[in-house]
Amino acid sequence: MISVMREYARSLKIVLLIVVVVFILTSGVLFYWGGGPSGGARANTVAVVNGEEIPFERFRRAQSNMIAAYERMSRQRLTPELAERLGLSQQVVNELVTEAVVIQGAGKEGVLVSDDELRTTIQQIREFQEAGRFSREEYLKVLKQLRLDPGEFETEVRRQLVRRKMETLIKQGVKVSDEEVQQAYRQRHERVRAAWAYADVKPVMAAVQVADTDLEPYVKAHQAQFSLRVAHVLVRVPPVGGSDAEDAAKAKVEDIIKRAKGGEDFAKLARELSEDKASAVQGGDLGFVGPGELVAPFEQAAFALKKGEISEPVRTPFGYHAIRVIDVKEGGKTPLKEVAPKIKETLGAQKSEQAAQARADEVRAILLSAKDFPAEAKRLGLESHEATFGRGDALGEAGRDPQLDETLFGLAAGGVSTPIKTSGGFVIVKIVQPIPAGVPPVAEIRDRVVEAIKRERAEQQVTDKAKALVATLAKGGDFAAAAKADGFTSGSIPLFSRSEPPKERGSLPGGVLVAALQTPAGQVAEPVRADGGVYVVKTLERAAAAPDGFEKERPELEKQVLEQKRTLAWDNWIRGRLADSKVQVGGQPATLTR
Known about the structure:
By secondary structure, this protein is of the alpha+beta class. The protein has helices spanning about 5-10, 55-75, 80-85, 90-110, 115-125, 135-145, 150-170, 180-190, 200-205, 215-220, 240-260, 265-275, 275-280, 295-300, 340-345, 355-370, 375-380, 400-410, 440-475, 480-485, 510-520, 550-580; strands at about 10-20, 45-50, 50-55, 130, 135, 190-200, 230-235, 285-290, 315, 320-330, 385-390, 420, 425-435, 490-495, 530, 535-545, 585, 590. Helix 7 crosses helix 22 (about 550-580) and helix 10 packs across helix 19. The longest helix has about 35 residues, at about 440-475.
């Protein structure tokens, strides 16, 4: 479940001031904030890679590109708070460090870009052309509009071309053997037949007894519970890659999804193929997350999945994702005192958003220095409201707004927010007192705690019973009879393969199919938790792939295996360069992995 304790731990006691209501919303406004790395060898340097300084200006441009890409994809303004949560600045630094390592490595390999290659590339950019021909006048005009110096622009283009050349050089050296292609074909088309047994947790829960003395220890031990545990594989789309890069990234993720749904281990795919360096080493595991903690497109896709399910390709500002839900916990959240009635009293309509914004800015400037916030608000003809607010809570007419949520939790005690535009109007907030980490009174959440304890104990009981069944089946005997004797329902899975899952699969979860595909014939897999219960799976038969279809699929498989090996070779080359590099970020030694 979503831990009620977690919400209390992150709660703030705040004074809320609704300034005005605006029903006409304008499009996002271009903004820029500092927020970049600080320190380093020089004030204008964000990192040093093997003695090469990465200037802050390059960081700023890369950050602006990423912000623009996010806003185009999500169709919403990227707030500084959300950017911080996404780790945007660190992602930009990581990419710039990787780029520097690649450029340096290319130099050692003698990979260069001639002036003619650079000139040809720039002249082919449509934005610099008139009537289909390059125009230097248009070129300089566009760069001036973008506030780019031609020399700096050409340097950046040259760097991108060098990186592309180096990547091509590494990938061109990769070959695929006939045996590798045949192995991919065998894995794709090898068929298995299996038997399964299932025990539901709910009947066991009904019989579980929970004593009052069990509640407090459970609450203390489960403060970190969230709602959804997800893993993902990310394939990035270069900011200047165009439609070809977009299509290539999507195709790669589609292939990953197909392989995962066909039975390949998702964690293994993430470790080998994901370009999210931080989570790849964990098999793509992002841990437990709750609503409002993910990029919008990612969150929408993830929370639409059931446990064990894998998404279709999901596009975010960072690239394409394959998402798998590992686990699901039931939800719950800290109650918020009803503030809607008082909020409604202070809502007033304005003729335009510009007037509302101006009024909000005026009020905020006065309140910022006020010794008595409520009294000053009253003097201004406004009414303030005090309430306890937890992350994810709705706020009356303002609703549950991500910007409101992020801004409040970025303020220190005594801090006054800038006017926050929400669907219900502008809100100015002063933080009165952060409530220390803790848990709500057990009496307030008793039913949910009892439910959670019952489920946990029931799941353990059913899992133990499933393990006992596995041990019994390992000694031989009739699968269905043994399952029935232990209170399991049972069934069978007809021959299927990674490329052709069972057509009449029903509600059988993907985890059961994966277990069957990964278990040798005649053996029983470890219990699989899914669909509110526990499955036991025995692989009855493995049928080799029919060889007559190999030649037809050879071209596709060769391309697929070659692309996988090329990607792995490029990633390994970069990892090797990073491992041998001396990197300083913010004046401190740093270790980057890929």
